[in-house]
Amino acid sequence: MKYQVRLLVMSSGERLPVLCTSDGQPMMEPALYVLTELRAQGRSSATIRHALEAIMVLQMTLDQQQIDLNARMRGGKHLQIHEVDLIARCANQPIRAFGQDSARQLSRASAANRLHYIHQYLRWQAFGFLMQLDSNEKAYLALRDRVEKACSALKARSPCLTIRSPRDQRQGLSDQSLAILESVVDGAQQVWQNEHAQARNQLMLRWLMELGIRRGELLGVRLCDIDFQKLEVLIARRADAKDDPRAQQPNAKTYERVLDISEELAEMTHDYVMWSRANQGLSRRHDFLFVAGGTGKPLSIAGANKLFASMREAGLNLPEDVTAHILRHTWNDRFSKQMERAGMSPEAEQKMRSVLMGWSPTSETAATYTRRYVRERASQAMKSMQGQLGVSGGKP
């Protein structure tokens, strides 16, 4: 690969992605863009990385076509329509498949995001060049017009996200899949042979199922966040923490909040800390709850992902897309049913859900996380109406 995104960890703890050439040299224009635009806007490390990966695809496409965009702008020209088409096609492929005749494509949302970042970068780059020209000169006006046409053409080629098939939308687990997962947590299904991995992974699943927190929030939980007396846990935001040794730091995307934990979860957590975590390598040198087996270092994002991969490989008849985030959707489905049983008003339910999920009080995010529940309720309502029609209408 001619280019790569590297992660710099500053002395302040900040994680800063940098686009580099194959020999490790930072690329100046993308670095300047990150510092003056993305970092200045307070974008997260993950967002900056996604933007740089998009810029990397753009640069690889330009290299493939032997296009020097700065030289073109000096000559008063910019991208042509067929080149915009090629960039849009390349942006729709995984980076590893670049230049290959691969049938694999990114999701519509991922491709749209990548084209958005490319569009923003091209505008920034062109604006910086135009600033050096006299705005009254014909050269300025002609180049500005060409840039606008190229950027508009690229934007028009972004996949439309307004209409999505229900099958393509994330939903919580079915009751059958949830029962399988509960059997893993309860120990009825033995997935991991290693004793520490079994205890840790069962506990991680229990945390995700009981609290509905994000993967990054789970990996960021520290021992000091848990109050075993009050049965509470603090879900904290600690972006760019100096004492987090993980280069790719798991982060909370939501507001800080205190959540109640059950006595059973508290007991499982306490047992893991005392009898399993304590025996893992360097675990006593930090206070992150979940640790890697053997080394005792804070568990990485890749390590958490491996948990779900190993369950899929174990042939447990779980959906292919089961992840920590799917369990967050599942929690919201269960919460909706609980609120319905309690006779809670929609307004009160939304406020309570937003507090527990770490969303703003006016957030509309709930609709994204309750698709299965809403679909099931709609199906029940339709069947009820159909039944009533059959009774009232009689036989033909």
Topology, element by element:
Blueprint: E1 3-9, E2 15-21, H1 28-38, H2 45-64, H3 69-74, H4 81-90, H5 108-130, H6 138-156, H7 175-185, H8 195-211, H9 215-220, E3 226-227, E4 232-235, E5 257-260, H10 263-275, H11 301-313, H12 324-341, H13 346-357, H14 366-369, H15 371-393
Antiparallel strand pairs: 1-2, 3-4, 4-5
Helix pairs in contact: 2-5, 4-6, 5-6, 7-8, 8-10, 8-12
Organism: Aquabacterium commune
Protein name: Site-specific recombinase XerD
GO molecular function: DNA binding
CATH architecture of the largest domain: Orthogonal Bundle
**Global shape:** globular
Number of helices: 15
**CATH level 4 superfamily of the largest domain:** Intergrase catalytic core
β-strand percent reads 5-15%
Distance between the termini: 70 Å
- Secondary-structure content class: mainly alpha
**What's the number of domains?**
2
CATH topology of the largest domain: hpI Integrase, Chain A
Structure description:
With 396 residues, the chain is mostly helical. The protein has 2 domains: 3-156, no CATH class; 169-396, Orthogonal Bundle (hpI Integrase, Chain A). The chain has 15 helices and 5 strands. It has helices at 28-38, 45-64, 69-74, 81-90, 108-130, 138-156, 175-185, 195-211, 215-220, 263-275, 301-313, 324-341, 346-357, 366-369, 371-393; strands spanning 3-9, 15-21, 226-227, 232-235, 257-260. A 3-stranded antiparallel β-sheet has the order 3-4-5. Helix 7 (175-185) packs across helix 8 (195-211) and helix 8 (195-211) packs antiparallel against helix 10. It starts with a strand and ends with a helix. The mean pLDDT is 89.
